[in-house]
Amino acid sequence: FTVPTPPKSLEITNVTKESMTLCWARPESDGGNEISGYVIERREKNSIRWIRINKKPVYDLRIKSSGLREGCEYEYRVYAENAAGLSLPSDPSPLIKAEDPVFLPSPPSRPKIVDHTKSHITIGWTKPLFDGGGPIIGYTVEYKLTSETDWSTAIQSLRGTEYTVIGLTSGAEYVFRVRSVNKIGASDPSDASEPQVAKEREE
């Protein structure tokens, strides 16, 4: 057997002034021998030296890199290891500055109608493409009758990506939209859902 191919799809998330989280995907090939762990290195923008950040092998496909200096830019690369040794390094990540997030997130996807009865409607959506540089801490769900102009808030700081709005008027038609929230605030609203009448599902 041989060494593995390099890990793929290295991404940086949850950036703050002192830490960031790295995620990556398994190599295409383990070289014919089980991967025993991953080695992660980081480099400061103006340094020539790559520094290993994990003392012990990492078995997960993620690690938190902490102890960063605020305002400094860092790049990362990851190696896979098996009994034959270390792979070549992954492609390095882009240079990311250690700073607390300063942007609002982008809106989530347009919500889809998941289920409905004559008194409630369930919607689902997917997370935003851009979290603003900090974790999404929740979602705000808004709804209105299609005949009205003003939106009502059904819930704020919802953790999941599905929600059932209850207490609706049977036979009335509603639309829904969702906002992403990080610690800076709430995004613009998503596109509105397809209109849905509050009625029992037909089998």
From TrEMBL:
Pinpoint the Fibronectin type-III domain residues: 6-101, 107-200
Q: What is the lineage of its organism?
A: Eukaryota, Metazoa, Chordata, Craniata, Vertebrata
Give the UniProt entry's GO cellular component terms: M band
Q: Which PROSITE patterns match?
A: FN3 (PS50853)
SUPFAM superfamilies associated with the record: Fibronectin type III
Write out the GO biological process terms: sarcomere organization
- For this entry, the protein name equals Fibronectin type-III domain-containing protein
InterPro entries per the UniProt record, alphabetical: FN3_dom, FN3_sf, Ig-like_fold, Striated_Muscle_Regulatory
Pfam families associated with the record: fn3
Which UniProt keywords are present, listed alphabetically? Immunoglobulin domain, Repeat
Q: Gene3D superfamilies per the record? A: Immunoglobulins
The answer to whether UniProt assigns keyword Repeat to this entry is yes
* Superkingdom of source: Eukaryota
